[in-house]
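Lab notebook, entry 729. We have the chain sequence and a SMILES string for pyrroloquinoline quinone, and the next step in the workflow is to get a structural model of the bound complex before anyone spends time on docking refinements. Request logged below.

Task: model protein plus pyrroloquinoline quinone, output structure tokens.
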Amino acid sequence: MGRSNTECQWPEKKSRNRSRIQIAFREISAVLVLFPALLGLSLPSSAWAQTGTDAKPDRIKANISRVDRDFIEANTKRSRDWPTVGLDYAETRFSKLNQINTDNVRDLGLVWSYNLESSRGIEATPLVVDGIMYQSAPWNVVHAIDARTGTKIWSFDPGVDRSKTYRGCCDAVSRGLALYKGKVFEAAYDGRLIALDAATGAKLWETDTLIDHDHSYTITGAPRVFNGKVVIGQSGAEYGVRGYVTAYDSETGHQLWRWFTVPGDPSKPFEDASMEAAAKTWDPSGKYWINGGGGAPWDSITFDPDLNMVYVGTGNGGPWNRKLRSPSGGDNLYLGSIVALNADTGRYVWHYQETPGDNWDYTSTQPMILADIKIDNVPRKVILHAPKNGFFFVIDRTNGKFISAKNFVDVNWATGYDANGRPIELPAARDADQYESIPGPDGAHNWQPMSFNPLTGLVYLPAQHIPVNLSPEKSFVQNAAAPGKLGGLLGGNIGFVFNPPKSAPFGRLLAWDPVHQKEVWRVEHVSPWNGGTLTTAGNLVFQGTADGRFVAYDAANGTKLWEMPTGTGAVAAAATYMVDDRQYISIAVGWGGSYGLTHRATEYQNPGTIYTYALGGTAKLPAFVKYQTEGLLQGVKYDPKDIREGGEIYVAAACVACHGVPGVGRGGNIINLGYVSAEEITNLRHILFHGPFRDQGMPDFSGKLTEGDVGKLQAFIQGTVDAIRPKSR
Ligand SMILES: O=C(O)c1cc(C(=O)O)c2c(n1)C(=O)C(=O)c1cc(C(=O)O)[nH]c1-2
Ligand SMILES: [Ca+2]
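Result returned:
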């Protein structure tokens, strides 16, 4: 599906006189987007006018105590509140509110803004019940806010050790919170599940959800709560972990059940029959269990109260390259799958594997929507899903049977799915020594939530194209992963690639008809990595964009009806709710996440901010802060013969993942090393060894890089910048 986008070109194609090396390095910035989150920028925090709150703890306690299954199901009928991350159990992000609609949306104005005082990605949709808003920010700082006025009620900082941020691949993000019977639940980056008193922010209990701390586990996903159980997965499949989901008692934090996504060491007893079955699809000669095999369920978990099933979206293989993980092949269950579990026991019920034998970081963790739709005039209970691999899936959620799949952007790894729901693969995608992966590892759709409007019958999907050249990693050391350690990255599929991808990246908003599996309308954006969507009974779709706008479209045809600037790129999805009979819309903005670490599409770098809008709102936007850097790096001494080896170190030590390619692009939410002062690069050893940015998550390279490596890195950084510096005539 999808017209090809030929008018966009890589910028370098327009200029002719560039050396091969600079082109290579430019393309690496698009290639390697998935490693430890390092430097943040410290931002000035502006003063925000706030007008107070009358939200007293007793009132909050009384209201949030009501949030249980009955409340959430009742709210699904009217959408007055936004009590769960995806609005309802089905995670439709379709609000029945229509006070704001296509006729009056032009009168939408700002009511308040709230400074989250952060410089990293904001990915969470706020929860709002009875006018009390709960928002999670980077490193899991939780804010409780009066939604009428934007006044802080309380905030809670769980004290995540920021110097360990490099343990995760893709920024210090949190995808949201959960509410249940008077408590706020959050899963912290360091693996703790924490219950807070919704009225006061006091910690009620916390539990360590990680099975070990030697492997590089983190958590970025939102917990889900149902029937007194808090369910959470974790992240780390780029770094060698074994994925699992666990349910905890919402009152006490005691573990109730756990289900692993991939099998463990076959010489030990299997945890359950589903693991025994899965092990048959892995080649034990890969010794995959030493590093876990992957499958980290780092985002989507949904619940169907009627079927009493929990649906888990599982992650990619670790390492990505199947030849290293499972040398003789195999589907490697349950990577890249949707798995249904019994909600009471966590026992496996069914699975559908969207990407058998993953080789490309094609996770199925992307947000699911449970919908009841008619297909061939027969009512079906389905899951709508657009995982990274570029196909839109409709799956029967009662039994996991494949109904249909269609690519929603161009893909080059498979031509389609057969009637049994198996992809028809193109051999080059696994066998080529160098392969332009489309979709690339950032996916044709990533975690940015889609929404489904039953009135239009359309899914609003933030789609993208970020091609990446993959090549088997020559220096890969089997089962020796450790972030920030030379040669220890677990990609296994990312060599030092010299040729740029042939196609240009893009981002677009798609309106997708899941019944007929076809695109109905699209909006082209200036950049990939745009926000999740919200749709309403006012016939509207709302989306934040990478280039710093919050936009409303007509849900039927995609006509743009309204927009406001946001002062930074927006990636999270918005929420809407009623307070005192007035409909509000809130979005938390803050540029970041995997692609956002190294790329940007705005000239502004405002701190993470919640914007709240209503009809007739007249509040002023906060001042926008220009993104500023030093000029192009100049004057660092180096030996040109060190450039190439320095580049290999720059890739292997994962510098490129957070800092991009020196001088190519001016950085995402982390600085590009081509735009810092010569002193900083001259003194690089002081930054690499026991350096000053450890408290922002940069690894300490002591003992991992040598003094000689430092000189080579300096050569690569300054040499690359010199290669691309515009020549004076
Ligand atoms: O395999 C994993 O464990 C894992 C974890 C995460 C994460 O926790 O954020 C991401 C990914 N993979 C990933 O592949 C990916 O594209 C990605 C994007 C983002 C983000 O927040 O922007 N996280 C992640
Ligand atoms: Ca991944």
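Notes for the group: Residues 535 and 541 are 4 Å apart (CA to CA). Worth checking against the assay data. DSSP finds 13 helices and 37 strands in the chain.
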